[in-house]
UniProtKB/TrEMBL annotation:
Keywords: ATP-binding, Cytoplasm, Ligase, Nucleotide-binding, Purine biosynthesis. Coiled coil: none annotated. Its EC number is 6.3.5.3. One of its GO terms (molecular function) is phosphoribosylformylglycinamidine synthase activity. It holds the Pfam family PurS. Part of the phosphoribosylformylglycinamidine synthase complex involved in the purines biosynthetic pathway. Catalyzes the ATP-dependent conversion of formylglycinamide ribonucleotide (FGAR) and glutamine to yield formylglycinamidine ribonucleotide (FGAM) and glutamate. The FGAM synthase complex is composed of three subunits. PurQ produces an ammonia molecule by converting glutamine to glutamate. PurL transfers the ammonia molecule to FGAR to form FGAM in an ATP-dependent manner. The keyword Cytoplasm applies. This is Phosphoribosylformylglycinamidine synthase subunit PurS. Part of the FGAM synthase complex composed of 1 PurL, 1 PurQ and 2 PurS subunits. InterPro entries: PurS, PurS-like_sf.
Amino acid sequence: MKATVHVMLKNGVLDPQGEAVRHALGALGFEGVSGVRQGKVIELDLADGTSEADVNAMCEKLLANTVIESYRVDLS
């Protein structure tokens, strides 16, 4: 089984990397971009029997800083 974890900064948290990407896109001539939020994707290969609750515990303890980040888990 695989899990994909999408981690993003929470709304209201400044995203300097996203702002740098937005600025660079403008400098390259892409004027239609008014905002960029940058996050990360983590792919996990899981042993059979690993539950979504287990993956959520991994996120809470290590994969996401839940003070400033939110996450979403997709299992496949």
